[in-house]
Amino acid sequence: MDKALNAGKDAPVTKIPAPKISFWKKVKKSKVLLLMCLPAVLFFFFFSYMPMPGIWVAFVKYNYRDGIFGSAFIGLRNFEFLATSGKLFDLTKNTVLYNLAFILLGNTLAVFVAILLNEMRGRLFKKISQTIMFLPYFISQVLIGILVFNLLNYDTGFVNGILSSMGLEKWQPYAEPGSWPPLLILIYLWQQTGYNSVVYFAAIMGIDSEMIEAAKVDGANGFQKIRYIILPNLKPTIVILLLFALGGIVKGNFGLFYNVVGTNPLLYSTTDIIETYVYRATMTDFNFSTASAVGLYQSIIGFIIVVTVNWIVRKVEPDYSLF
Amino acid sequence: MKKKLVALLLAATMVTGLVGCGNSSASSSTASNPSSSSSESAEESTKENTKESTEGETAAADIDTSEHVVITYMTTGEIPTGTKEKYDAMMVELNKILTEKVNAELQIYFIPWTDYLSNYNLTLASMDGTVDLVGTASDWLDAWPNAKNGAFLELSEDMLKTYAPQTWESVPASNWDLCKYNGEIYLMPEDNYAQWVNHGFIYRLDYAKEAGLEDGVHSWADLTEYFRYVKQAYPDIIPWDSDGTQYGQLASGYILSNTDYVSIDGLNSGAMWGGTKDDLYTIYSPYVTETDLLVEYAKMMKEWDQIGVWKTDVLNNTASTNRDDYRIGRVAAEQHHTQTWTDLVSHTPANTIYADTPDAASGFFYFGEERDNVVALSITHGAMAVSAGSNNPERALMVYDLLRNDPDCYKLLCYGIQGVSWDMDESGLRILPEGYNQDTDNINGTTNYWWGRNDNLEIRDATRNWSEIDKLYDHYDSVKIEYPYGQFVADVDMIQSQINNINEIHTNYMKQISFGKYKGTAEEIVAEYQAALEAAGINDVTAELQRQFDELYK
């Protein structure tokens, strides 16, 4: 029955004498577009698809002379250490929660800042504030680690210097795991907001000015303009950026965590993410296979999350989904 | 039209760029293939050679050195910048000799200290013939894991006899046995060089005397007293500006001082398994069995933390320059090995404390002093290997033989050009020539040839305090035992994941314990630590190591 129905449905489609365009004609027709695509296609082919068979290294006992495919197959043993550590859950939880905070707060703040910038009238002030917010993005995370240590350390830190000169009790964040989630999020926002807001700012610039003018004519005030014109127009950008960001949700920000928190075990309960744990645990034995196993684990989880979220988005608003 | 053209050009450049990349990598990989096969065939041909010629020595004359080759030797150390000019001049001289004798020249491939172990292993893993000779070490440069991974060439006896005859002669057979894995020799050991790298505390003897410790510090209790005094009497000095990485040495030092534990090198950074002096071949981990001792240790370290021996945020302190601060009197102790003490105890120009304070003196409390628990250094603490990716392994061996045994080559490589970087006084000691500048002329601290030093050729440094040093070395020699586990190369494949997790637990808990930063009581933290170790399978690891031990030693 189903088949019959489907066949019936399909039949007219195929019967329409569509002008048969050959593959080569299509290529010829859009050759400029294809050429423009080519670098990106080649890039992904060479740097993403060609190395992909190398994933095999996660399943072998790698040895230099036999190479990736010649080494002995050992199944899932490389994944064992992550599972047997008993920390996989905590690590994944920390990683995901931090990334959620980074993504959600980061994007919200970036949209907010982009709108503020858009509303500013003074051109000079706008440029200066944009530049100042952008600058932290260029600071190496190693330097950020040092800056934070010099601000917060107990004996000679700037903050504690002020606290003690005001007669207040000193604060010892490097012994208090509870202080780090807000601190790390703050540091992340400070560093990334300027950069992230540029994309949104550009998207706002791209909104048809006629719409905004029409709204003004209709008597919309500033807030109404933001609420009914700018935000709805930003929605596709926000959704796409969120989808991209979610793919990396199990990939921790190693640079930030390692440099700011360092290897202080007192703080691990709230700051240890998959990357930092794996780095510490495998640094001593230089094991390519275990490291790749962890990478594969993260990629698979990331893949599942992207596909799921994309599926949800497609259900709700098909236009916004990535694929 | 213009746009089209630009797009086309852009695409074209990208494509050619990528194609170029593809080509070069392809050609390099094909290039490396024949090289590895040629090295194999070369190995075979050397075997044939030596079969034909009955005597190793006569074979040396037959070796074909008609092609001039460059031998690259890999060492840890900073690429010379200030000393570059003198370094280049030295290399020219050295290469003259090497060219004349074996028609080869030497190049040094430096692995800078930042992340040295990763870069070192990565360079070995690439196996593309960038390096020929590899400075390595079984305890700190992953010599055995790399040998197992196939990074080093098996050195057959024939090869050694033919191409490195002096080295072959000078190393006794029992020492060659310690360089074998699965019956094959992989390393050429630095077995004729007296050095001690057992750790301990270097401290200010003058302060200790002021503190009432007339003969200096000789126990951990003395150390506590010493630190307490320094903190009170010299409030401007941090007694010991430790960074967060010292936890392991401290803990193992405390165990050495209070038990007869002898650890196995190279299993993990904590050296958590071993035997005892009376019963060397029964493996245990004192970190599991010595509960009372660890509690005592945890309490003592809490006391040190409260005294203020180190900075409050010691666990995040990565910028410590404690050793240099010791030289100029800004700290009062340094935890490191005997070799470092021989430097700090000597009145060198860099050690300004001796010039600034007339009665300044440095003492050394070595871990294990209380019970004379001293184990001699493994002979593979420094060793030379030949890379399996080398295109000229035979010539590499010939070059090494000269570097190790030829006085001229040895002096050039280790000390530099005589009269420029060093000189000899009437009593045969090494002195600094007139107008010497440490920043531009120092070769001894540049080439880092730690993989075949030779006491027959060493020239003693006149600035060293030899009376003190010889006294301590003689004492060590009278109480030491030889490192007993030289032949044991653990097969850790089945227990690697446990060891990884144990490393992590040890690091996390020991940092808290060793710097007195734990919450709760000492008993609680030690119990928690030991429970975590057991949960991670430390007993399984011990049992597996014991099984491998029994196979080897019984």
From TrEMBL, chain A:
Superkingdom per UniProt: Bacteria
Example of a GO cellular component annotation carried by this entry: plasma membrane
Protein localization: Cell membrane
Membrane-topology annotation of the record: Multi-pass membrane protein
Database matches in SUPFAM superfamilies: MetI-like
Transport is among the record's keywords: yes
InterPro entries xrefs: ABC_transporter_permease, MetI-like, MetI-like_sf
Pfam (any one): BPD_transp_1
UniProt keyword rRNA processing, yes or no: no
Alphabetic keyword roster: Cell membrane, Membrane, Transmembrane, Transmembrane helix, Transport
Location of the ABC transmembrane type-1 domain: 92-309
Transmembrane region(s): 32-50, 96-117, 138-163, 183-207, 228-250, 295-313
GO biological process entries: transmembrane transport
Family: Belongs to the binding-protein-dependent transport system permease family.
Protein's name in the database: Putative aldouronate transport system permease protein
TrEMBL record, chain B:
Region (Disordered) residue spans: 23-61
Keyword tags: Signal
Regions of compositional bias (Basic and acidic residues) in chain numbering: 44-54
InterPro entries tied to this protein: DUF3502
Positions of the DUF3502 domain: 484-553
Gene3D superfamilies: Periplasmic binding protein-like II
Signal sequence range: 1-26
Low complexity bias: start-end ranges: 23-40
The name this protein goes by in its record: ABC-type glycerol-3-phosphate transport system substrate-binding protein
Annotated source species: Kineothrix alysoides
Taxonomy of the source species: Bacteria, Bacillati, Bacillota, Clostridia, Lachnospirales
